[in-house]
Model the fold of this input.
Amino acid sequence: MTIILTCDCGARFEVDSEWAGRELPCPDCGAVVRAPGGRQKLVIERPSWMVLVSLALILLGAFTITGTLAGVTLAAWSLIRRQPGMRPAMIAIGLGVVLTCFTLFAYWKPSALPIGPWLRYQVLALQIDTSGSDVLSTADGALTLNRPKGKWGRATNNQFSDPSVGDLQRDTQLLLGRIDERAFVDVRKVDGKGDRPLTEIGEWILDELSGQAPEVVLNHPMIPFPPRGGGRIPTQQLSTRRLDLEEDTEGREWTFESRRGNRSWQFVIVALRRKGERNPSRPTYLVRIYAPQTKFTRLEPELRAILESVKLSR
Done:
């Protein structure tokens, strides 16, 4: 069997089929002509390390926002630097953008997707530290409490990005969480109210809980959420009582119900401070235990145990 070849110079000639896929000179002009057929050598471009790492970040960090954004950034940088593997880099960028948008939507509209709670748990799991001592103290060392063993941990940056209560956790001196149940315990130091009776501090707490709704769904510096919320948050005081404590300590407890996000939350808040002359510089410490109302009754013994372990330093 023969193959008919045509050279660019116009010459036509025949060669045996054994030359298929090989190059040979034109008998007229000497130019190299390739005979069709035969096995073509497949050349595969190996992606650069930047592209491989970006794909790993996007796949391993899927639904964490930070991982997908880091992967997209690295893949885009590999394109700018014209690193090998342009097609995998574009695939990584597309996949990262889709996963990021999907995750943001799940946080923005958690009820629209059944995996919303799972995504929230994955994000909060990156913000908790369950190691270290079970006796924890505030930043100023004036108050300590006992952390239950197991799933309770301390917020790494003294704030969890929970979409319902993350706005309340700013400026806390100590913050614990059990993220599988969305249960929290935090401690705040209130200055400038040492000359006010604790009953008036309760009114201030109520104003804070029922204040302006959060402007962001997820308070995280890496995620630029658009403004959302506004208006007063439905909140009511359920009960209050004076606490019988040590001779040099005074305290009061309040129970509130507050509608945050798409569910009701229950708060038990205790105000503690040393007895003495009333002056604005005397600090007051607020210890808050809270969880969704549907879970609070079941978790209350665990939360109360933390509350009862609170001690003010001498």
Residues 213-229 have pLDDT under 50 and may be disordered.
